[in-house]
Amino acid sequence: MTDQTPSTEAMSTNNTTDSTNSANSANTAEASATTALATPVLVATAAPDDSNKPQPSWMNTPYLISGALAILLAVHWYSSQNQMTALREEVARRLQNADITNSEIKGIAKNVQDASKETQAKVSILEARQTEAQGQQVALEQLYQDLSKNRDEWALAEIEQVLATASQQLQLAGNVQGALIALQNSDARLAKAEKTQFILVRRAIAKDIEKLKALPQIDLTGLVLRLDSVIAQVDNIPLWADEKPPVVATPPKAPLRVLPRGAKANAAKPDAAEESTFTSQLQDRWQSFSSEMWTEVKQLVRIRNVESPDALLLSPTQAYFAKENLKLRLLNARLALLSRNEGAFRSDMISAQDLITKYFDVRSKQAQTAQALLKQIQSNNLSIEMPALTESLNSVRNFKMKP
Question: Which residue ranges are recorded for the region named Disordered (predicted)?
Answer without folding.
Answer: 1-32
